[in-house]
Design goal:
Layout lengths: L8 H8 L11 E6 L2 E5 L14 E5 H9 L17 H6 L4 E5 L2 H8 L3 H8 L5 E4 L6 H12 L7 E4 L3 E6 L2 H14 L12 H7 L19 H8 L5 H7 L4 E2 L6 H12 L5 E4 L3 E4 L5 H16 L11 H5 L7
């Protein structure tokens, strides 16, 4: 108690409870206190910050030294490891750094005309665009190259297929920048539709759960959702929590047969199944991380302009990620 990180508990809990800003254990926050860098522990949820100790102290200089040696992992403390983005947080000179999986930013940065749109939407801000790089050291090195060529210490980085990084002097500036991005990058959602419960029941020979929340079912309806399912995945968190593919079944196909075929083809059991224009079914063992990512992708489906395909992760990108396994 009484550390520099304690002052951030309320902000982290608020950010972590907003599915448009973070989903599940995604996103991370850090604050510098001299050479000590307090950063969210890997796997922790920002939403838990008010009730749990989610931060770890690390030596900023040691992190940068380890990164310069090309090492990809950092010493654990008390059985916990710092966020995979610890090097990025250490590199930035500002005291407070937020990395958010802001969905409107992910969509805006994944549209075919992203750079032109962002130039207009973010005019007047000290911001930079970073193409997609694998989370961790590859992304940090990309940011480091950008910082070497820039004397202005940008306060906002837009990360393609990944979200935003906000670097600020203090909490007030971080909140102001977050709100500015939320307003400027806002995309109006389409209405939620009601799932076809009788159709879901007819297909559900495995007795999977029908989500009572309306959000997951948005993945089943409309052209934007169809494109998202077809070009899956949009961001690395989908791969970590949901897998590199999504199980889509035809209305006349029984769930059991579809799940067996999906598992045989992909090497893992799907945590959910989508029946187009009907709704979504959850596997009995779906975890909280997966459910949070499903809700996030549902928001993406509702907010993405129709008939405009997003630029999603390619096969080379997926080969560098660790998908779900059985």
């Amino acid at each position: 108690m009484g550390t520099a990180a304690d002052e951030l508990a309320g902000l982290c809990a608020t950010l972590g409870s907003n599915p448009l800003f973070t989903q599940g254990p995604g996103g991370n926050v850090s604050v510098k206190d001299g050479d000590r860098l307090w950063i969210k522990a890997s796997g922790s949820w920002l939403a838990d910050a008010a009730n749990r100790d989610i931060f770890l102290p690390v030596s900023r200089s040691a992190v940068l030294e380890i990164a310069d040696r090309g090492l990809k992992s950092f010493p654990a403390r008390g059985g916990r490891s710092p966020s995979v983005e610890v090097v990025l947080h250490a590199l930035l000179p500002q005291r407070l750094v937020l990395h958010l999986h802001m969905l409107d930013a992910i969509i805006q940065a994944s549209l075919p005309d992203a750079r032109q749109r962002l130039d207009s939407l973010l005019s007047g801000l000290a911001w930079r665009f970073l193409p997609y790089a694998r989370p961790g050291l590859p992304l940090s090195r990309l940011a480091q190259d950008e910082l070497r060529n820039d004397d202005t210490s940008p306060s906002v980085f837009i990360l393609k297929n990944h979200g935003v990084v906000i670097a600020a002097r203090d909490q007030a500036e971080a909140i102001s920048l977050t709100n500015t991005l939320a307003r400027r990058l806002w995309l109006a959602p389409r209405p939620l539709l009601v799932p076809d419960i009788p159709a879901l029941l007819r297909n559900n020979d495995l007795q999977w759960r029908i989500p009572t929340s309306p959000w997951p079912h948005a993945l089943a309806f409309g052209k934007a959702a169809a494109a998202l399912r077809r070009n899956w995945p949009l961001c690395p968190e989908q791969v970590f929590c949901l897998g590199a593919k999504i199980c889509v079944i035809a209305p006349e196909t029984r769930l059991g047969a579809a799940v067996r075929a999906f598992s045989d083809a992909n090497g893992y059991k799907p945590p959910l199944a989508v029946i187009p224009e009907c709704g979504v079914l959850f596997a009995p063992d779906i975890d909280a991380c997966a459910e949070a990512l499903v809700e996030g992708m549902a928001h993406v489906a509702l907010r993405t302009p129709e008939n405009v395909p997003l630029e999603t992760l390619g096969e080379a990108d997926l080969a560098q990620l660790a998908p779900r396994t059985i």
